[in-house]
Amino acid sequence: PQDLQDSVADLLQPFQGDPIDKVASIDAMGFILGAAAAAMLQKGFLAIRKAEHLCVLTLAQPRTDDSGREKVMESRTDAISLGLRILLVDQWVKTGGTMRAAIQLVEGLGAPPPRPAGVTAICTEDSEGGQWLQECYKCAHCVP
User: Fold this and answer.
1) Record keywords: Transferase included (predicted)?
2) What CATH number has the domain bearing residue 27?
3) What sign has the CA pseudo-torsion 127, 129, 132, 137?
4) CA 138 to the chain's CA centroid
5) Is residue 141, in this structure, part of any structural domain at all?
6) Does residue 117 lie in a domain region?
7) How far is CA 62 from CA 6, 26, 76, 131, in A?
8) Cα gap 70→138, rounded to integer Å
9) Coil, strand or helix at 114
């Protein structure tokens, strides 16, 4: 339990004092970290799911996974209102395609322009997509 608490604290440390209204995380391993981060911040939690896993009205976002396959992610349409600051959480950012799709979902649902509050993952690889994320968004990760 202490290792999980320490990891989440490390991921959230760069965002101390930043306005965060809700934590969104990506299906499925990201849910563990995202739920822990939301609990630690005492904020709401939003699941960004694979297509057709939610039984409510959703916004869909196509993406390409790290093997080049086309996939779709979804989020409920009523979870984000204009002006909310969303922290995006996943366990691993390899190419950045999944996180980019999650960012597009959050921005499409009403996050304030121009960006979500930030992006955090256990590891963000030094790929083209990982570099893009770190250049464009406030990011945190635990594994160098």
Assistant:
1) yes
2) 3.40.50.2020
3) negative
4) 12
5) no
6) yes
7) 34, 14, 15, 21
8) 27
9) coil
Q: Which two tokens stand for residue 45?
A: 């939690």
Residue 123 pairs in a beta bridge with 92
Q: What's the domain count of the chain?
A: 1
Whether pLDDT at 110 is above 80: no
How many Å apart are CA 28 and CA 4, to the nearest integer?
17
Question: 35-44, 68-77, 81-90, 109-118 — which one is most confidently predicted on average?
Answer: 35-44
d(CA 94, CA 17): 28
- Residue 139 falls within a domain, yes or no? no
| Structural domain boundaries, residue 26 | 1-122
Nearest to 40 by CA among 73, 15, 77: 15
Examine residue 131 and state whether it is found in any structural domain, yes or no: no
Phi, psi of 42 (to 5 degrees): 55, 50
Calculate the average pLDDT of the chain: 87
Distance CA(55)–CA(75), nearest Å, equals 10
- Percent of the chain whose pLDDT exceeds 70: 94
Alpha carbon distance 31, 37 (integer Å): 10
Q: What was the pLDDT predicted at 79? A: 75
